[in-house]
Amino acid sequence: xxxxxxxxxxxxxxxKHRAGDLVGAAPLYQQVLKLSPHHPDALHLLGFLLHQxxxxxxxxxxxxxxxxxxxxxxxxRGNQARILLHLxxxxxxxxxxxxxxxxxxxxxxxxxxxxxxxxKGGQVVAATKLYARLLCLTPADPATxxxxxxxxxxxxxxxxxxxxxxxxxxLAPALIETANSFAFLQITIRDLxxxxxxFRRTLAAQPxxxxxxxxxxxxxxxENDLEACLRHSERALELAPDDPQIHVRHGFRLLAAGHVRExxxxxxxxxxxxxxxxxxxxxxxxRGEPLAGKHILVCAEEGVxxxxxxxxxxxxxxxxxxxxVIECAPRLLSVFTRSFPGCAVHPYKREGDRFRPVHxxxxxxxxxxxxxxxxxxxxxxxLRPDVTSYEHQRPYLTAxxxxxxxxxxxxxxxxxxxxxxxxxxxxxxxxxxxLYYTGLSDWRAxxxxxxxxxxxxxYGRGWREEIAAAQKAFGARIHVLAGVDLTDDFEDxxxxxxxxxxxxxxxTTLVWVGAGLGRPVMEFGVEPxxxxxxxxxxxxxxxxxxxxxxxxxSWEAVTDAITDAVKTL
Length: 569
What we know:
Elements: H1 6-18, H2 22-35, H3 40-52, H4 56-69, H5 74-86, H6 90-103, H7 108-120, H8 124-137, H9 142-154, H10 158-171, H11 176-188, H12 192-205, H13 210-222, H14 226-239, H15 244-256, H16 260-267, E1 278-280, E2 295-299, H17 304-310, H18 314-319, E3 323-328, H19 333-339, E4 344-347, E5 358-360, E6 372-375, H20 379-383, H21 401-412, E7 419-422, H22 444-447, E8 453-456, H23 463-474, H24 490-499, E9 502-505, H25 509-517, E10 521-526, E11 544-549, H26 556-566
Parallel strand pairs: 1-5, 2-3, 2-6, 3-4, 7-8, 7-9, 9-10, 10-11
Helix pairs in contact: 1-2, 2-3, 3-4, 4-5, 5-6, 5-7, 6-7, 7-8, 8-9, 9-10, 9-11, 10-11, 11-12, 11-13, 12-13, 13-14, 14-15, 15-16, 17-25, 21-24, 24-25
């Protein structure tokens, strides 16, 4: 009878392992280790088997031992990283994935593992670079093409993403995720009929797939068919009840239909998204308990515009008897300090990137301690359950009086006529966002009327070039105030917003600058507008007039109506 050797035992164990017989494979691996205690393959395979059997902690010890013996073995490193990821040790998993890639730079499995881990961890930029390397090695792999298209969509590079998706559809027409992503891209170019066709194709192949139901809800939303929109949205939630993004989109749809309480409750799911702000060191969350004599921290949202919007509810907390600490973007520190004199205001220090931001709260006072904390965007779920709960709101932001006078003096030097602050788009330009924004050519009537003095309040990058092109193309008249920083200096922004006769802009930060100051705002947008909550106006912000259009229509009717409204200022 031939005596069993470590190698023969290992082969027999591996056969059982691959067949899914974990119970049969485990003792054979143990026999190998009894004969050869430092056998790296047996340590690695038994460790991964224990992980598969639900004993990840014990399994990791064995895999770690295998890695210590053979540190350049990519399979060992890869499985070590997978176990660490399962245990929630993301930083250690990332190191292990990188070590596997260093050992084998052209190993597709190592690249895929690290790219997927970066994607899951919200590091989209890093994941995009890794998937690009992977596509150089496997250019026709449908799964990689699909994953990379998702990264590019998140980064706003829709044209490149579309090219990858079309290639993927040719290579793997049965891959339903590709058809679904391609359908979503059609919304960004306002081809709602084609989007619907591809969503329906996806559902024909997989009726229980939630994403195309949510996609059809989006198509119906832009068609202003809120009844059908909510029907598709609710079906998506039935199929994917734990998907934060579907919940958040459902919340917007509910708000647009006037279901205020339910909409804000669904919006709370944003706190479970991978790209949420991770907050370390917070006191207990405020859930509506009485605030008299209590200290509460209002945590900053990710966008400055959101901070300005939700600051409208800080007076409610003060009126309830709370001592309020406000966390805000550094750019808003002086504005909030002046506007809320009875509150403590602290600028955040944001770490990470826009896909995985982190805020730490070791700066919070200890004496007296903070009793509660709440994200600013969660205040409506407690304080604004219906449209009537907005009616008591009053202007709540204050510009620096001296700067306002300086701005008024500069505006007085312009020719006669109403002075209107003007922005035609947001800071960020991307295909989906551009559905809501205009180009300067859409405003020819406003920008060529000598009786109206249009003052640029545009921010971001590239706007000066856009103005120069419009001046050359049709003689656009836009005043640009020298030395005024409309991107980062919110004292300048608020002073100009208070000095002009009105503001024309899309749904951006400037709406809440004007609304918070109580100044006339003419906002343009696409129907339906969820912030109107089914009312046709901005509840709680009476100085804001909203002019909307169907997404597939041109902006002409909207821009003409706003031009006429500006003449009455």
